[in-house]
Amino acid sequence: MGSGLINILHNCILKLKLISIIWFAYPALLNVNIMFYMKYWGITYNICCFQVAHFTTPFSYSCLSSIHSAMNGLLPPEIRVREISAARPEFHARSSTKSKVYRYKIYNEAIMDPFHNHYAYHSAYKLNPHAMQEAANYFVGIHDFTSFANAAHNDGERRPTKKITRFDVTEMGAVLQLEVEGTGFLYRQVRNMVALLLQVGKEALPPDIVPAIIAARDRKELAKVALSAPPHGLYLMSVNYDEEILKPPEGSPPISFGRTHHLSKCKLTLY
C-alpha cells in the first residue's frame, strides 16, 4: 500500500480531531481510552487496496455513523471507509492479522483492452496457465523467501520465513488471475513470485525452477532469470482476522456500515 494513501487517511482523522496516532495492517499502541478499527479501500499508484486500520480516541461515542460520514466527506473519491467498529483492547491492525490475500491480474491477449489498462499487466505472449499452476504449487508451505524479497527502507529486522497457504492460477477469459494467500509477505515478494511465474508461463523456464530459486536464498539468483513484475495488476484483496478478535467489547456502539440517505417525505414544491 502506498504511503500516500496512509498519509491521506491519517490527515483526515487528524482534521476531525479524533486522535493523534493511527496504525495500519500492512505497514508494520498503546491502548488509550477507546479504540476503534475501520475497514477501508482505495486506489493508489495503480494498486487497489482493501485495508484495515485502528486508532485510539479519548472521546466516547454512542453512534459511529456521524464519524463515518464525516471521514468519507473529507476523503478523496478514490478512498472510502467501508466500516467502523469499536475494537477490543488487544486488537492491533497489524499484529492481529491471520492472513493476507493478494491478487495479480494479467491480460493475456495480443492487443490490450483499453478498459484493463492500468488495472492489469499486459502479456502479449500466450501463457501456459497449467505450467504456472504447477510452479505456483511449489510456493505453498513454509519457506525462506529471501530470494523473492527486495530490500525495504524500513526493513531493519526482516524475517524471511513465511507461510503460503494457497497460490491459485485461474483463467477468466482473456484475464489470467493469480491469487496468493499467506500469513505475511516480504517487500515486493508477490511481484517477484509473479515475475518468475510469468517466465514459466512463457515456457522459458520449467516449473521446478521455483524450489531451486527458493533454496538459493539469494535475490541475485532470481534476478538472473526474472525481473520484478510491474505494480499495476496487483491488488490487496483482504486482510483476515479471527472472528473472535473482531467482536466489539460489551456496551460498544453499533458497527457503522455507512448511512443511507433518503429523500424527504415533504411534498411541498421547492422554488
CATH topology of the largest domain: Alpha-Beta Plaits
Rg result:
22 Å
Name given to the CATH homologous superfamily of the largest domain: Pseudouridine synthase I, catalytic domain, C-terminal subdomain
Shape: elongated
Number of helices: 7
Distance between the termini: 47 Å
CATH class of the largest domain: Alpha Beta
What order do the SSEs take from the amino end to the carboxyl end, as H and E? HEEEHEEEHEEEHHHEH
How confident is the prediction overall: mean pLDDT? 82
Please explain how this structure is put together.
Keywords: Isomerase, Membrane, Transmembrane, Transmembrane helix, tRNA processing. Helices cover 23% and strands 28% of the residues. It is α+β, with helices and mostly antiparallel strands. The protein has two domains: 3-96 and 241-246, Alpha-Beta Plaits, CATH 3.30.70; 99-237, Pseudouridine synthase I, catalytic domain, C-terminal subdomain (Alpha-Beta Plaits), CATH 3.30.70.660. Strands 1, 2, 3, 4, 5, 6, 7, 8, 9 and 10 form a ten-stranded mixed beta sheet that branches. The chain is elongated, with a radius of gyration of 22 Å.
